[in-house]
Every structure is written in C-alpha cells, then in structure tokens.
Amino acid sequence: MSASTNKRALVTGGSGGIGAAICKRLARDGHHVYVHANRSIEVASALVSEIAAAGGQAQTISFDVTDADAARAALETVLNDGPIQILVNNAGIHDDAVFPGMSSDQWHRVINTSVDGFFNVTQPLMMPMIRTRWGRIINTSSITALTGNRGQVNYAAAKGALNAATKSLALEVASRGITVNAIAPGIIATTMSEGAFDNETIARMVPMKRAVLPEEVAGLDSYLASDEAGYVTAQVISINGGMI
C-alpha cells in the first residue's frame, strides 16, 4: 500500500465545481476528505453522501476562510483527531470589474478570500503536518495570474500572490517532506464559466478548442498529493489546453 493512502485531506471550497471533483478524486484515492463549505453546506453534505455511497470517507466542515478566528476554531476541532496532511486551498471568488470602476469592496473581497484565506487555513495546520514529516499543500491558482485578464485585476493580484506564497512556503518546508505547489487552470467547464465564455470564444482562445474539465484538474491534484510527486515542489503548473 502506498504511504500516501489513508491520509486526512481538507479541500476548501469543496462544494464548488472544481472542489467537488477534487474531493471525489482524493476520496477515490483512499483519503479521508473534509469537504469545506461556507454558505453551501447543503451541497457539501450531498457530496459527502455521494462519496460515502461510492465507498469513500468524507465529512463536512463549515467556516468562512476570511474569518481567522472562525477558521482556527474549526481547524482545532479537526486537529483533535489528528493532523491534516493533504491540504487543497481551493476557495476563491470572482468579482469582476474594469479597474477604474472597481470598488474597494470588490478588491478586498477577492484578495481576502484567496490570500487571507490561504493564511487562515494553512498556518494552523503547518506544525501538526511538519511533525509527521509528510505533507502536500496544493493551491488553486489561475491562468489569469500568469497572463493577466481585463476586468480581473483583483483576481490576478490574488492568485499571483498565492503563486508567490506557494514558492516561498515550499522552500521553508521542503526538508520536512512537505511539498507545496499551485495549479493554474485555464477556462474551466463549470457553471461559473459557462456565462463568461461561449463555445466560439473558447475555440478562439484555446488551442485544444475546449475548456478543461474539473475532473482533469482533480487528476493533477491527485498526482501532486501522491508519493510519486514527492520531488515536485515550488511549482505553478498550468493546465490550460495550450493557451500559454
């Protein structure tokens, strides 16, 4: 049996399209998955039931990643049962506007969710993970952080900061058997993107002429969470159909 099976995994934003695919894949890999949600706890509960029906192990956890105290309290409860060794920081939001018309609230909501959320969730889990001398931290970034995108200065800034944090944290914990990587998807086939990109636009922008499936992103998460990826760290890997 692989040493990376039967780990305890936490996926923030686990109730969303990509998050759900990641949760199902990690559960299929043999991990006990904590499906995080903030407002969509009913969706997360339904996903847990689906995972259980397929023979996997999962449970819900609910808190606002931008609320440091709430996050720490919820995570301390989880840590009472043992360390989290696989963490997927997947929670993130869009609030698009061209920069001259962007409000302060739009800027801070997007930054706080991705950047403060990364700190609020990851930092409390670090020492327990370090003590096990095995860990996988995977941050969901975006191609927008690599190429830029009109109307998404806030989102690009948030995910760009996440990429930089990924590389720096990876250096700090590399000697402890912990890898830290980011996945930067291109256009994703989810309900969120359907309203923004029609098939003609996708065909024009993407050399492979289609959007990436959430399951394809989850497959990369699965690899990065495995023993086989133990020498892959400090990387931002873009899965984008040849866009860059």
Structure overview:
The protein is α/β, with parallel strands linked by helices. Helices cover 46% and strands 16% of the residues. The protein has 9 helices and 7 strands, in the order E-H-E-H-E-H-E-H-E-H-H-E-H-H-H-E. It has helices spanning 17-28, 41-53, 68-79, 104-132, 144-147, 153-173, 191-194, 199-205, 214-224, and strands at 8-11, 32-37, 57-62, 86-89, 135-140, 178-185, 236-239. A 7-stranded parallel sheet has the order 3-2-1-4-5-6-7, with helices on both faces. The termini are far apart.
Keywords:
alpha/beta, seven-stranded parallel sheet, 7 strands, single chain, globular, 244 residues, 16% strand
Summarize this entry quickly.
This protein is an alpha/beta fold and 244 residues long. It has helices at residues 17-28, 41-53, 68-79, 104-132, 144-147, 153-173, 191-194, 199-205, 214-224; strands at residues 8-11, 32-37, 57-62, 86-89, 135-140, 178-185, 236-239. It has a 7-stranded parallel beta sheet with strand order 3-2-1-4-5-6-7, with helices on both faces.
Write the layout of secondary structure elements.
Elements: E1 8-11, H1 17-28, E2 32-37, H2 41-53, E3 57-62, H3 68-79, E4 86-89, H4 104-132, E5 135-140, H5 144-147, H6 153-173, E6 178-185, H7 191-194, H8 199-205, H9 214-224, E7 236-239
Parallel strand pairs: 1-2, 1-4, 2-3, 4-5, 5-6, 6-7
Helix pairs in contact: 1-9, 3-4, 4-6
Shape summary: globular
Order of helices and strands: EHEHEHEHEHHEHHHE
Average the pLDDT over all residues and give the rounded result: 95
What count of helical segments does DSSP give?
Answer: 9
Q: N-to-C terminal Cα separation, in Å?
A: 37 Å
The share of residues in helices is 40-55%
Q: Gyration radius, to the nearest Å?
A: 17 Å
Largest sheet: 7 strands, parallel
- Structural class by helix and strand composition: alpha/beta
Taken as a percent bin, the fraction of beta residues is: 15-25%
Strand order of the largest sheet: 3-2-1-4-5-6-7
Number of DSSP-assigned strands? 7
Low-confidence region ranges: none
